[in-house]
Amino acid sequence: MNMDYKLEATKMKNQFLYKQLGEAGFDLPWIGKMFGKLGIKHDGMKYGRSPSIDRSLLFPPEFIYGLVDKKGKDVIPITTDVAVAATTLYKPKEIEEAIRIGTSKGYDASCSFQRAAVGLDAQNKLPKFKAAFLANEPCDSNLDTFNLIFKEKGIPFYNFVLPREFNTGAKDYMKYQLEDFVKRIAEDTKGEIKMDIDKLREAIKYSNEAREHFLEGIEQMKGPGRLMKGREFANYVLFCSGGFGSKEYVDVAKKFESELKGRREYLKNHQEEISDNPRIFLVHFPPFSYLEFMKNVDSQGDMVAAEVNTIWWDEIDYKNPFEGLAVKLGVNEGVGWNVDSRSKVSHRPSLEEYDIDGVIFVKHMYGTNCPLATESCVNRLEKEIESANKKLGKDILLEVAPIDCICSTNIPVNIDTRIDSFFETLRQKKGSPPFRPDMYKEDLYI
Predict the structure, then answer these.
(1) pTM for this model (two decimals)
(2) What local confidence, expressed as pLDDT, does residue 343 receive?
């Protein structure tokens, strides 16, 4: 069995993602073209036919799935960052132009995601959102972006404040904020958007179900060998977090679990096919700006763990939905956003449980402005690796890759040779055979 064949679950995930973007009304022509490649049936679909609400990556999508318009139509949660990253993969020049426009508006100090969003808005390529929700962590430049895109247009947006330390008081405060949002959005939209508590509870049930299936699937990655490409694996949980709360994403999660369990069972019976590649843990987002980076990683190692593919939350209490969602957001130390997102990032569980040989930390070129890509994050990660090495008797190596997530003009000329050197050192330590170049021609990434 070729473990590099794309999962059927990935195709289903792509279909879900692009159909949402289209129905929300993104004015990006490439989205329509992707429908044919992904086998999405138009069914008379019209762009922008569904009411949509923008959200930052960490704001709970389940909350938005509980909202309906005055006709009872479901509201779609959209993450502009995801649309920006997807556009980078297929139309990078379009994003470069958006970044240029965003920079010219005085956003030169913000990360490229934020500058691109501002640029797309200036070109009227974003949907006509009914409202927007953001969480102040992990990205603290989101607030400036939302202010520019929404406040000046009179579109209501709401800032969900995550306390740096989670305790009973913090939980109550976060619960209060969510309950207050329900009242405010109904008032601010003059009843056009309101909460349906039964739909909210249903969305949380769907989210819990998807969570369980993804956990079972991700668990399979702990075993020996390679089950799928790293660049395919890295985009299920956080990047497509807007799926949690929908019935369609439950189907994706079920398929993901089923296929990875099938591949794990196959390797149990065909151990001669288990690779001896270095096992890699990816920290931060993969760089969407430079596909060759992840192709290079996939060709030389097995990426078995990814920070952005971490299920950090427990089952959500659907009977007490606002408190349940508050807890989900408050206990998120699995991906580092707890207490102090700039310095106290803990990665030890993955290092120990996944038999990691090397860690690649994707550090934005605009890292000083990203709370998850500062030098203090690197220092913390180095300490975690040192601790794991002492406990496990290993020599886990760290490679800090200074490459921007979506800005293709900020790609170091030596990034490929740095990765090659990193893997050569890992192979020597692991006793793996010399590397033989393997070209991957499939270019559908998300």
Answers:
(1) 0.90
(2) 36
What is the average pLDDT across 387-406? 90
Q: Which band of pLDDT confidence, cut at 50, 70 and 90, is reported for residue 279?
A: very high
Q: Is 327 part of a structural domain of the chain?
A: no
Sheet containing strand 52-55, edge to edge, reads 76-78, 52-55, 131-135, 157-160
| Residue 408 maps to a domain | no
Domain limits for position 74: 47-199
Tokens of 416: 């490929």
Residue 225 and residue 261 in contact, taking contact as beta carbons nearer than 8 Å: no
Distance of CA 294 to the CA centre of its chain: 15
Count of domains in the chain? 1
Q: 28-42, 58-72, 176-190, 367-381: lowest mean pLDDT where?
A: 28-42
Do the beta carbons of residue 311 and residue 212 sit within 8 Å? Answer: no
190 occurs within a structural domain:
yes
Alpha carbon distance 286, 187 (integer Å): 40
Rounded to whole angstroms, the Cα distance separating 347 from 350 reads 6
Cα–Cα distance, 423 to 122 (Å, whole number):
42
> What Å distances lie between residue 275 and 224, 300, 430, CA to CA?
8, 11, 12
Which domain CATH number covers 113?
Answer: 3.40.50.11890
The answer to the question of residue 275 being in a domain is no
Q: What is the pLDDT of residues 282-341, one digit of tens each?
A: 988 888 888 889 889 998 999 999 988 888 888 999 999 999 999 888 766 533 433 344
Residue among 61, 69, 59 at smallest CA distance from 196: 69
